[in-house]
What does this fold into?
Amino acid sequence: MIGNLFKLQLIETGNTSFPSSTDSTITDGLENTSNVTSDGILIIDLIIDSWPIMVPLFVLSVIAVYIWVERYNSIKKASKIDASFMSNLKNNVSTGEIEAAKTLCSSSNTPVARMLHKGILRLGRPLKDISTSIENVANLEISLMEKNLSILATISGAAPMIGFLGTVLGMMNTFHKMSAGAEQSSIHIGDLSEGIMYAMTTTVAGLIVGIVAYLGYNLLVSKVDKVVHKMEDSSLEFMDLLNEPG
It folds into this structure.
């Protein structure tokens, strides 16, 4: 009886020593997992492997940045109007100094000055003709300020769709590998997740380009609207001056 108990105790003691080998196996597995994580996929690798879609997106991003910088500087220049411009112009017109008013408009390279210069050239004609000529020049100046903004709007919509196209093509490639692996019974979850990651990279890049272009487009449109309001106010002041009794 005592011998049997002693044997049971030895067996229990031996069992408690078994997990040591199991623990070492688990530790090795965790170390391998950490090594795999540390050797993860680099972003540059994702970009290089997706180059057929990334190259068009990069070109679109360069075009968007160029258009935004060029239009921003141009619209900012057009919005600068001398605070004393309208008062000096009104004084010249009210006192009959038409040539001085023309010279003042010619010296100011702004949409407002060019618009009012056209109105001064039409002095002596009916007010409707003067108003029409001012309106025509204003429409021309607005179209010049909005130059290439439609391209920026197109990029903001096209870039995400191009990125999504890359994702669809990448997913098709991944599913093709899955079907080929199923026939050979060699499907690995790691390979599938890596393929999906490559596919999603183009969507992320397309969304980034599209969002930046969209924000830039709306900013430029808001600045154009401010210039248009200044042009409307100036034209109303000029027409009110002509409508005053002499």
Q: What stands out?
A: The chain is about 85% helix and 0% strand.
